[in-house]
Specification:
- With about 475 residues, the protein is of the alpha/beta class.
- It has three domains: about 60 residues, Arc Repressor Mutant, subunit A (Orthogonal Bundle); about 130 residues, Aspartate Aminotransferase, domain 1 (Alpha-Beta Complex), CATH 3.90.1150; about 240 residues, Type I PLP-dependent aspartate aminotransferase-like (Major domain) (Aspartate Aminotransferase, domain 2, 3-Layer(aba) Sandwich), CATH 3.40.640.10.
- The protein has 17 helices and 16 strands.
- The chain has a seven-stranded mixed beta sheet, sandwiched between helices.
- Helix 11 links the parallel strand 8 and strand 9.
- It starts with 12 loop residues before the first helix and ends with a helix.
- About 40% of the residues are buried.
- InterPro entries: Aminotransferase_I/II_large, HTH_trans_reg/aminotransferase, PyrdxlP-dep_Trfase, PyrdxlP-dep_Trfase_major, PyrdxlP-dep_Trfase_small, WH-like_DNA-bd_sf, WH_DNA-bd_sf.
- Keywords: Aminotransferase, Transferase.
- It holds the Pfam family Aminotran_1_2.
- GO terms for molecular function: transaminase activity.
- This is PLP-dependent aminotransferase family protein.
């Protein structure tokens, strides 16, 4: 029989080759372009005829999955990663998987792109460290994080004798999710009442949910104000254990809470003995100097978590926790995960925090302010009849609300099919407070990309009005 012969399972042989090649293509790194095996080589590998392989390649070419190059062979690009997640019923999984596709224009990210000058500074510190330790750092593992990095972070957050931190109060994790899991595990939040302001970062919401906390969501109003009366009612009526608050502004909404409201919130929480977890992952990206909650809350009731991703991106995925309490539980958690944070990069980051961080922070804020203001002006010009934008006072994102009822999930899916990714509001609330909202990040995109996104978004909002 020839290449159209059936294999032992009863299917045509070329279909087996086709399935094999699909799995091979799906394993390609997003954005990468690789050369596929030649017809003859693949035929020998799979023990089928050249014509059978040719039939499978022909089918993939017709589907647009591969491309032939004259006198060279067949090539494929990585794009179809996380296939099951892209079809998941979980909206968040579809958003995250979509962001991994190489041919997607991503407007959903939370953080700005890393700064090239900051990355160069980190590289310089790496070279200096390599000269200082030509034989490497040895094999000793510090489970809570490299001591040098913990000292640097403690010094950065120390303000005075009453509000000081030391290295023993600092814990380093491989990423923010790991640190949040560690924090809620140490606090033993199963069944405890935790108050958050929504919109709220999905990592915080999901990890609190997984920890078994009873999450109470307080929705910010259109001006970004905290519903103070509702907060007081919750504190009086519920035995609240913890409240999570942004350090200088509230992400992803982007609005800075009024200083008077911050003082009132801090006073209420102190009166009711509520712990405060300050989210400082983007605190330094506030465009104007702002009062921090850690300046108003006693360290005895305060936790701080943060990261350096806003400056360095994936080159510094580590996150950290500052806490004076639950030392035994936190150390136990770190001991069980002692190998996840490379010590070399931690030492480099310690030097960056002590001798380069602030030099890059000011230009980062100014660059972000310029990009965000320009993108907001563009959106108002093209989408003002459809979207109401919140005032952005920090970070890279713009929070928007539809001016009329729409099915925002269908808007998201519509744009995703056009290779445009936005963050629908439902991922920022567990209780449905953000159905009509979305988050957009235009930083790093061209004017042409802005125009394509705005045009597609306008059509989708109109098509899915309810």
């Amino acid at each position: 029989m020839n290449g159209a012969a059936k294999d032992k399972a009863g299917a045509f042989a070329y279909q087996g080759v086709y399935r094999y090649l699909l799995r091979l293509i799906d394993g390609i790194e997003p954005g990468a372009r690789i050369k596929l095996p030649s017809l003859r080589v693949l035929g020998r590998t799979l023990d089928v005829s050249v014509s059978t392989v040719q039939a499978a390649y022909g089918l993939l070419e017709a589907e647009g999955r591969i491309e032939p190059v004259a006198k060279s062979g067949y090539y494929a690009r990585g794009s179809a990663v996380f296939g099951p997640a892209l079809a998941s019923p979980d909206l968040l999984q579809r958003v995250l998987a979509g962001a991994c596709q190489s041919n997607m224009e991503v407007f959903s990210r939370a953080a700005p792109a890393p700064r090239a000058d900051a990355l160069k500074t980190v590289l310089r510190f790496e070279v200096e460290l390599a000269r200082r330790y030509p034989a490497g750092l040895g094999s000793t593992v510090q489970p809570c994080g490299e001591l040098e990095l913990r000292h640097a972070l403690a010094a950065r957050y120390t303000r005075c004798l009453e509000h000081h931190w030391c290295a023993d109060d600092v814990y380093i994790g491989s990423d923010l999710l790991s640190v949040l899991h560690m924090t809620w595990t140490a606090m033993q939040l199963q069944g405890a009442v935790v108050v958050v302001l929504v919109p709220c970062a999905w990592r915080i919401l999901r990890t609190l949910q997984q920890a078994g906390a009873r999450v109470v969501e307080l929705a910010l109003d259109a001006q970004g104000r905290v519903p103070m009366q509702r907060l007081e009612e919750v504190l009086v009526g519920r035995q609240v254990r913890l409240m999570v608050l942004g350090a200088s502004f509230h992400a992803p909404h982007g609005t800075a809470i009024d200083d008077a409201d911050k003082r009132a919130i801090a006073s209420l929480l102190e009166r009711h003995g509520v712990w405060v977890a300050e989210d400082d992952t983007e605190g330094d990206l506030c465009f104007e100097a702002a009062l921090r909650f850690r300046e108003l809350v006693s360290p005895q009731r305060l936790l701080i978590f943060g990261s350096l991703q806003h400056l360095l991106g994936a080159e510094a995925p580590f996150a950290y926790l500052l806490s004076r309490h639950w030392q035994g539980r936190l150390q136990q958690y770190c001991l069980q995960r002692a190998t996840v944070a490379p010590p070399w990069r931690q030492k480099v980051l310690a030097r960056f925090i002590s001798g380069g961080y602030d030099d890059h922070l000011s230009p980062q804020r100014e660059s972000l302010r310029h990009q965000v203001v320009a993108f907001a002006a563009f959106l108002r010009k093209h989408l003002d009849e459809r979207l109401q934008l919140a005032k952005t006072e920090g970070g890279a994102c713009i929070w928007a609300r539809s001016r009329y009822p729409v099915d925002m999930r269908n808007v998201f899916e519509d744009l995703r099919r056009q290779r445009l990714l936005i963050a629908p509001g439902d991922v920022f609330s567990l209780q449905g407070h953000c159905h009509q909202h979305l988050r957009l990040n235009g930083c790093g995109h061209s004017m042409t990309q802005w125009e394509r996104c705005a045009k597609a978004l306008a059509l989708a909002l109109e098509a899915h009005a309810v």
